[in-house]
TrEMBL record:
Keywords annotated in UniProt: ATP-binding, Nucleotide-binding
PROSITE patterns per UniProt: HSP70_3
InterPro entries: ATPase_NBD (IPR043129), Heat_shock_70_CS (IPR018181), Hsp_70_fam (IPR013126)
Organism the protein comes from: Spumella elongata
Domain of life of the organism encoding this protein: Eukaryota
Keyword ATP-binding appears in the UniProt entry: yes
Record protein name field: Heat shock protein 70
A GO MF term: ATP-dependent protein folding chaperone
Amino acid sequence: MSIVGIDFGSHTASVAIWYEEKNVVEVLADDLGSRTIPTAVAFRGDEIITGQAAISQMHKNANNTFDDVRSLLLSDSVANINVPLLDKDLTVQEVSSHFFRNIHNQIKQQVGKVVRDCVISVPKSLDEDIRKRLVESAQAGGMRVKALIEDSVSALMAHHLDEPSTAPTRTLVLDLGWSATSLSLYNVSGGLLFPVGTTTLSEASGCTFVNLVAAHCAKEFARKHKIPCDDNKKSMMRLRRECENAMKSLSTGAEATIDIDSLCEGVDYSSKLSRARFEDLITIPFMHLKNAINALLAQAGWSADSVQQVLLSGGGSAIPKVISTLKSMFPTAKFPVGRFEPSETPCIGACLHGKFLSQQGLIESAPTASPVAPILTRGLRIASAAGADSVEVLPVNTVLPVRVELNAALPAGQTKGFVQLLATAVELADAATPLGDLVFEHAAEGELRLVLAVSELGEISLEVVQSADQTVLANLTVPAAEA
């Protein structure tokens, strides 16, 4: 049974398929030969058009064209969309289902058979209501959603880091998409993916880059022809679309041409944009990106030199300045290159996850959550006196939940005891932070047990228990937010 992986992006989508009979994964192209499909739906006359066809007519039919159906679908504040042409409101699920119907038809056309089962790559931390809307929309469009997988996890799976033979590796995943950039840190070991930290910023994204280039071109047009076009909605739509194409060209070439007939008031616009000028225009977003990366590393207690691998995902990550910036920040890290474009990474990973579910016979009972194990982000240590040398009990990256018991005893003739719980950052094992103290009395001779437990959500509990009768002599609870 074949299965497809879908990267449902905010600007474009990609589709990969696993052919069971050949055991091969490949990315599908649409009927125009493109391996990226705009996530757009438009209503024109009696037609419902999707993908590139919808984008091409958007400047003439803006009010009835929706060029980012994912953002509408994943927004809990939007339930209905007004379509002026139809003079009525449609549910978000109904509008986006037309996009999934197009995906279904493209798969049938390219593969030669109907393949409905799919795994969809989605942003992190979608709530259950949003997941339900997404699944309903896909199913209304003819696709059967077997699992949802986080974008960052799909990137790890696309590079086969979920395999049991994977050596312990600290990995940064950068997913530079159209609407935002997602940064995720993982400890990967033996096929297990341990999330350490994540952050998202909208200041550096494909849309941001295109808008900066379009603003530059609009100023140049006004300077040359004394005609302002930045307030003309149709002109700016066309200009942004050409600037997006130019940005893609600059990923492989040193110069791109932006050429538009009758941009505004019948005046043509033609200009050349060098890669150096483009990189100069996007300097500020890259400052935000570097600051976000440094802040995430500091939060996790990682140094740049400790990052062993950097994975790139999303169409924007193909920009040469992205790669050069990351290589300067992580000089010792490896940058694996797959046999696919960065924009295709999520759909490849989603497809490989579907392959695994199918081969393991789990396709009918697949979990909708991504296969990520919660972990301890700071090590836990115990000391028998304030300021005394501590002993590590739970190391960083221990899979949660966890519970350990330690045997203990008071020195002869002593009836009062003291235990201190401390936490250590990843890179600062000597700089332990006290989380709490336990003071107790134990008059009778006999063994004690220290019971340390951490819940799946990160709440820590420590108990001193009298072994003979299981009496709890003292206990301490540290909420997850303070751990």
